[in-house]
């Protein structure tokens, strides 16, 4: 095998793991190599993008196992509340799915079209310094903070339970630089300040949203009794329709 | 060659993710829970109950053991909470006297900016405060709520008293357009249509608001004073839209130097197009009255009352407080769905009218303008809120007895569950009358206007007059009863299941309804109207600038309002 073939294979491998390469127009517009290097070295979590989000990790936290399924601890209604957070984050990240048309309706308008935060990341990257994204980021941050306030309050009240679980999750998911941990650790009213200090781009906000979704997904996965109760509640609701 | 081909194929395989584009990339993290939330998330908000392990008999026994609770509950279920369920009466903006354009033989196009303000709407025929609509200040209500308060160690009467003087306000702001084309034979044809914003909201004095805040009625951080989104979501209803089109045609049938008589007809077509929930909430979207599953609620309540685990007790009580708060807000929303849905136009009603306009030229500069108009509003279908009429004679504290005193048999678990479901239905009916698709009778509307006009100079005229408006009572001719008596009290125990006296009939006995509570009374207003006109003639234009308004001086069944307008008429 000669060196050209090695380079070819390596390039293809890198291309296929780099998320924004899926849009081929990107090649024409940007200095791909520079951006790739920047992405590789700037984003330390690059190696663990959520390609296998469905392979949930097992959390060993004893308290989590003991509280699973216990009313008012981690029961069906608590799981529902986590699912609501996941749903609302998705609403902001990728827009609401209109079941009739099969299309998603994003909350953030860019060039007359509604997008989700995740879709805007590409535009932000393509248009660095565009003032529109500063406004969109401000709005998205405000929405996320407002939406997550009950979650923050809950974490604040049960920090001694949640923080060790989150730390274990961070280690096992290899998300050492996630903003999630810092954010969950902030106290009464500091969330906005911490957000402003640490989230500077839509990409960072998008990563935070994805981290939170996957964290909650892993948490639910590790609470099978609570999740079964939630499924039962869902079934009851569907039967009552 | 084979090596090159293998390498290319391998490379192509690796490249597949580039071309196999999904919506958001595989790094997006679509796990099973995200997919489930995305797919089924719409119904998550409807899941509010926490499962409880106690059986229905144990729940009833637990409630019966709390001193005073059975009596207080039964008395509450027998309360007549709603005194009326009608929607408030408002006057279609086109009927306001300051928009009357008397026949002067000219064709014109007219546009005006207007504001109509009604500070205290009538909830019912004689009441401008909410206690005339909901029995907040009735002796029996206060007695029963007092009982409840004692059991829960909470001054419920004080809370209710905070709401009893709430009023309702409405305002309309927009443009009125009118046009008229005169024909040579003394005939004219015209149109009138408004475009406006219409807002309705509850209102309280500053002192009442302060007391609500002090008593923290709506919980931490969410109340009429603390949270503007709470006000927008629960206390304000608004709409923006184009009103019903009114077309008119008239004939100048008698004209002399001192007298002019015009006879005409008008038709109001329900063409209104609206957008609801601009600033406030679109309450029309709420389809179901507030419901609380008492089996679940009381189950948790009994567990909290009997557990020795202090942490669990606190958790359950917090959950129950949240359930109560949510129920309270849903009750408020349902009330708002009836009261705070402002109608643009004439409530989707066709109206056919006739008018007669005698004008007397009394002096060189004084003309007495009069107009009498009769409108026939055709019967139509509309959604009304109608209360169920149940026979609750047989309802007593025996509903909390789980052992038949005669036979000593314990009631079945199903029977106990039915009793709790029955009470849940009663609570729902008490606090939220069902929406019913009803057929409303036709009715009449009369308007009489007398206004002398003074020509001060060739350019300036002043009109000042009196206007009487009357709307006939509205009757509900037919109601599509949506209540079904799934559970009913039996006077004697069933033979088949000893001890059971409430059971399910699967909706075979439709209930009666309090139709008259949903019907609107007759209403009338006496108004004074004033208008100042300035005419400006140029070679190209004949314009009239108008400033005017009207104000209510007497009323019944409808609130006092005033209108201000500034208009411009292009005469041609």
Question: Would you spell out the secondary-structure blueprint of this structure?
Answer:
The complex is a heterodimer of chains A (241) and B (572).
Chain A (H helix, E strand, L loop, with lengths): L2 H15 L7 H5 L2 H11 L19 H6 L8 H19 L1 E2 L6 E2 L2 E3 L2 E3 L1 H10 L4 H27 L1 H15 L5 H6 L6 H8 L3 H20 L2 H17 L1
Antiparallel strand pairs in A: 1-2, 3-4
Helix pairs in contact in A: 5-7, 5-11, 5-12, 6-11, 7-8, 7-10
Chain B lengths: L1 H18 L12 H9 L15 H9 L4 H9 L30 E13 L18 H14 L3 H8 L3 E16 L4 E17 L2 H9 L13 H7 L1 E7 L2 E11 L3 E11 L3 E4 L17 H13 L3 H30 L11 E11 L4 E12 L2 E10 L23 H19 L2 E7 L2 E13 L4 E12 L4 E4 L7 E3 L12 E3 L7 E3 L8 E15 L4 E15 L3 E12 L1
Antiparallel strand pairs in B: 1-2, 1-20, 2-3, 3-4, 3-5, 4-7, 5-6, 6-8, 8-9, 9-12, 10-11, 10-17, 11-14, 12-13, 13-18, 15-16, 18-19, 19-20
Helix pairs in contact in B: 3-9, 4-5, 9-10
What is the spatial order of strands in the main beta sheet of chain A? 1-2
Question: Number of helical segments of chain A?
Answer: 12
Query: Main sheet of chain B: which strands, in order across?
Result: 1-2-3-5-6-8-9-12-13-18-19-20
Largest sheet of chain A: 2 strands, antiparallel
Strand content of chain B: 25-35%
Strand elements of chain A, count: 4
Q: Ranges of chain A with pLDDT <50 over ≥5 residues?
A: 11-48
Report the largest inter-chain contact. A-B, 47 and 42 residues
Please state the overall shape of chain A, judged from the principal axes of the Cα atoms. Answer: globular
Overall 3D geometry of chain B? elongated
DSSP strand content of chain A: under 5%
Main beta-sheet strand count, sense and barrel state of chain B: 12 strands, antiparallel, barrel
